[in-house]
């Protein structure tokens, strides 16, 4: 018996006929309504009676919400692999990770050649497919910044830019029958997708043997290759042969195929809606139940727990990989996995974790936390990985990522309350709220994760108008170190709710937050470049202008040293917004003219657009960014002394990127003890990036230390103990230590400037 332990999939194989163009679409929608997992389409580009399969799959993806989509199989002999890869990644991104790559070398060469395809021998077509797989995977490897070069005999790319990365690790399933194709499947593919009507007796078993041998020779586990099967036949009242009979007969035969031949994907061929209904209602559930029961008795190990020799060799010490709960293993990423390069780093920090867990809901988070605490390695929690400090990754430890929890759901229209998954990005939130004319202040980059920013502070482009992001959080779900799943609010665990708003990373794993959005129309977004030769004078004038401006104006500044014969420059990014209405362009012009007077104006552009046009949806696939050292501090005013201190810091040459964000405004209306973020009188946040922490510390402590008034820890990599009291001045720190002792007495959450539990 051969059971590779894959989760079972059930789907349909639909003819893309164009006589009724909507017919295949209706069958795809029916497949989804019936709860099937997969809908697939034939691909014969030379057949004029068929719709183009790529166009059809794109249309179906837009007309469905859950079901996965694949060609069955796509003809790579007529398509350029790099373009196929980009098309696949695009469809996967647009569909939310629902595209699978069923592909083949092509077989009807007369028809293919008639349309301009290069005729190839069977051996050449396999070689071309092998090169195509390498190119497609290379394009999807967006985390690799080196240009893609594949000097193939049939397909060649020379310096192609990689990307985009798909929404999920797209599996490549090969339609294979002959020995060389079967060996390619075992060595390089993720699945085998043949059609049962093409088989003679024993072909399925012989194919499995060939694939398994090739996989083992390549250092892979045979269980890495899913076995799918297109099924002929019909569900009828009487039995007249294999897969020709009642549903009970189908259940028995498919169960044997799963347990004895390792088939885990069953795809019914045909366009009869009644047959599809019978397959979905009478066959699929019963096969799932029968196979699950046999697996429980046999103690079958899930396929995700089986990896080849190369993957096993990449595992890190101190982690008991084999004990990982099944529900977490399905989406976990190990160092030997293809997805590892896309999840190991964060935005500016390189990492090499031993395992990245990606739970989908709070119960899985609790399971992951319990398991992680049994390992002898560090634990990091990640929202989207954009944090400057880099605490959402590590070397050799476990990373618990909330990236699969990214829904944006309106809970209450009247109060504009929105429930947001911790793994969502602020660009996604802005895009979801824009049609309603709502917005939540959220930093200056759309790739920032909701969970990280909304539990730390949230100094954003709408900050002077709305305050900090945490000021609008009204409830949160959090998983504590002991595995409890708690809903927190002012009335539910109020002590924990207080601590989450400012020191959330020390208290637990937040899975969702409810936030009350503001009514914000179109905003004015201005980008201005000023001569910063007189740096101190520029800062003093800009700071005074910002503080005197209406609260609808929030401005950020980036200071840069002179290069290429040019003097130092300042870039201003300014948002002007109005509560409940569009920003007034005339009023905005007057305010921007005052900002421009801060120094000689070198360039300016401004536009009226939704907030989602400022904080855009961004690619969150991070590859590290030079591992910078950073410091951050809060400033009450940019008076003469403070401005000169910043000027002297720049003169040291230690900071290669210096930014100042305006805060204050509505944020300073909140009492210092209302949240764990106690800094409610400062008006600016200064941060600096450098290549050496010790030298930056020396320059910062000398020049900025005397004028600094608190700190914002998300932008700081200095781990000296005095940073903690700067971030959480007493009595805030004492209160936090008491809450920490109640919810995390063992200091499980210690990666993010650990707060020592009281006692």
TrEMBL record:
The answer, when asked if Chloroplast is one of the entry's keywords, is no
Q: Which cofactors does the annotated protein need, by name?
A: FAD
- SUPFAM superfamilies named in the record: Bacterial luciferase-like, FAD-binding/transporter-associated domain-like
Q: What residue stretches are annotated with the FAD-binding PCMH-type domain?
A: 348-520
Q: Which domain of life is it from?
A: Bacteria
Q: Where is this region: Disordered?
A: 617-636
Entry keyword annotation includes Hydrolase: no
Q: Any idea which UniProt keywords this protein has?
A: FAD, Flavoprotein, Oxidoreductase
Report the CDD domains cross-referenced here. Answer: Tetrahydromethanopterin_reductase
| Protein family (similarity comment) | Belongs to the oxygen-dependent FAD-linked oxidoreductase family.
- Family matches, as PANTHER family: BINDING OXIDOREDUCTASE, PUTATIVE (AFU_ORTHOLOGUE AFUA_1G17690)-RELATED, FAD-BINDING PCMH-TYPE DOMAIN-CONTAINING PROTEIN
What name appears for this protein in its UniProt entry?
Alkanesulfonate monooxygenase SsuD/methylene tetrahydromethanopterin reductase-like flavin-dependent oxidoreductase (Luciferase family)/FAD/FMN-containing dehydrogenase
Identify the species of origin.
Promicromonospora iranensis
